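Note on ligand handling. Small-molecule inputs were canonicalized before submission; formal charges were left as drawn, and no protonation-state enumeration was performed. Where a ligand contained multiple stereocentres, the stereochemistry in the source SMILES was retained. For manganese (II) ion, this procedure yielded the string shown in the input block below.
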Amino acid sequence: MHVVQSVSRGALVAAVDGAGHGSEAAAAARIAVSTLKDFAGEGIISLLRACHQRLKGTRGAVMSLVSFDGYRNEMMWLGVGNVAGMLRRRSSQGCVTDEPRRENSASEGIALRGGIVGYRLPLLKPAVLPVSRGDTVALATDGIHPDFVRDLDSETPPRELAARLCAKYSTGRDDGLVLVVRYLGWSK
Ligand SMILES: [Mn+2]
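Structure output:
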């Protein structure tokens, strides 16, 4: 399951995979998603702790969270478990910009910490990265082959890109989810 929710300074984006299969896994994922929505304006560490509390006694869930701050043009992200995440920066070619481009690599992967939310939380240390308009983030559960990261671009419309990645990289062994978001910055 996924969350994309606006908050006062930006947006919370998350992909959640309930541990195991069937209705118990789905129930855990639903609890995680409703917790994330309830506390969407909180920081990533608080969100993971809140999910951990509410998921106790369930099968638990793995999840990756991305919190965009449109005021600072930053994103903070962290994964617990194995929901993959990749940031693909907008290619500078052909773009008109009024600010000097900071020196950042074209792609960066999310830091994944071992654990299961609701069962065992790892040390929570989210990474903070600068983002610019057009930068694209994709999250994918383990039903999607990890090679999807090589096929990310910052031009294809997010919905189309998510559909393409899902069709091309589904392993067929598990249900899979691909969530693609593009950063548009602060709306003036
Ligand atoms: Mn899975």
